[in-house]
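Dear all,

This email documents one entry for the complex benchmark we are building for the journal club exercise. For each entry we list the sequence lines for every component of the assembly. Then comes the predicted three-dimensional structure of the complex as a token string, followed by one or two observations. Please use this as the template for your own entries, and keep the labels exactly as they appear.
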Amino acid sequence: MLTSSLKRIVRRSAGTILLAGVFLYLVFDMHPWNIFLRALFPEETEWIYPRAMLIELVGEHLLLVAISSVLAVMAGIGSGIFVTRRTGRAYLQTINDLTSLAQTFPPVAILALAVPFIGFGFKPTVAALFLYSILPVVRNTISGIEAVPTHLIEAASGMGMTRRQILFKVEIPLALKVIMAGVRMSVVMNIGTATLGAIVGAGGLGVPIISGLVRQNPAFVLEGALTVCLLAVITDRLIAGIEDSSF
Amino acid sequence: MIHIRNVTKRYGTSIAVDDISLEIPTGEICCLIGPSGCGKSTLVKLINRMLEPEGGRILIDGKDTRDFQPELLRRHIGYVIQNVGLFPHMTVAENIAVVPQLLSWNREKIEGRTEGLFRLMRMEPNQYRDKYPRELSGGEAQRIGVARALASDPAILLMDEPFGAVDPLNREALQAEFMKIQSDLKKTVVFVTHDLDEAIRLGDRIALMRAGRIVQYDTPEEILAHPKDRFVSDFVGADRALKRLSRFPVSEFMKEPVVVKVTDDVDAFLAKIREEGKTRFVWLLDEQDRLIGPVDSRHVHRPFNREEDVMEANCPAITVRNSATLREVLSRMLGQGVKTIPVIDDDSRLVGEISIGEIEKVTEEAAFEC
């Protein structure tokens, strides 16, 4: 069963694997970039951001996204499950409101507010990304679990499952697809938003973008932006692959 | 044995179960029936403690259900609900294995049990084991629902309108199968239904409920013959004599049929029949004992000609299965305007015939009792 679903993932994600290969090549070999950007902006004198290698920037970027997303997914699924339990149901509205607030509060403003307290760099960026990306996970966890038909819960309980068993054997497996869709949305959003980290010195793919903005060099902007796009598309498809293989 | 003693359950201010006492003997089917909102489903959920009563006690084989942890109690009480409630993310075999898994049985034991339950439901294990519930028909899903409830071999089975969502044809097949299974397993069954015909057909006893109370608790024969009050007689309806017929399986009343095979000397056989003058119609069978159709011994061509002399066309319309009840038989007779009809088994083999005379005998007895 496991191997067959693995095979299915591989078959479905052939396009994604190809895309990932292209991405890895472009991260290590700057020649295609040089040719492409030179052709696009012949009036510039520099086409590749000189202060850091693209691979380093990608590494920093991924670290920001990974840490903030893991935290957001854990907190999001956790609180989503909590408010659908009997004991947590009273907090459903509060959690809904708080996550909406976090989502609509501009991440730039969060950064600006966080810097005086926790300083520049990695930490405020992770905090901003975490707050910004928790909403889709919470919302989808709640709606996924609430969509499980009550007669299935009743059947499970009537057969002698404990509440915990109902959660892990029935509710989560049935809600998994919806939860994963929320996770995907959250991570993909994070990949784009993480470029803001460059403003407070957290590094990442925002660095060439900001630099291009300051030095009025669109080639740098495009170098950072295109890499972010590719990263986002690949991640989106990877998580979609996992999503499809769940029930 | 289930003892329900003075049990009361309220929802807010409304009272769903009002001081009910009921005894359900081991190995019997007790049908709870009544108009919707009469508390029949609530009563069932009180037995496996899906709901807790405000007052009263429920004893199973003399032990108070409150002495057990609710989840552990439920693992030893089979439970079937109307929407079947098969888990869509589990295969059929995994669905059946839910309770054995909860009871931490080992793998061989679970596999053996699953296999046995497929057989009991007369379903081919290899064909169904790895299917998902969405690939099953309504009737198949319901069979798996019953199999799942029987998985841990519980002594008690609670069934809350289990066949309610199935079409009438399938429902009858399921009822007949369930009766067959029950005659072997002898479970103590509490069966909720709103279908009086179902209750009459399946129940050893019927508890007729109204507004949280039991109005009459009796055998189906008694309820039909001696309704306790106006409510009961209205509920069972003016056609109760007819309903009573569904208590009698045709297999117990059918007679040995007069048959002739296509491979026999049909002309000689018919001549003999005419001479004896006892019967007029004989059933023509093919080589495998399957029914071809009736032959009227008085109006045959000589020599016998299958195309002209056998009324093949209306044969399926007048045939009943041996799982049918006398009520279906009578309805078939009235519908087709015939007085004797053939009874076949699942493989279309003729196993008997039944005439209106046999049914009259049964209804006369009932009239006498009334």
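Observations: The two ends of chain A are 13 Å apart (CA to CA). Chain A has a mean pLDDT of 88.
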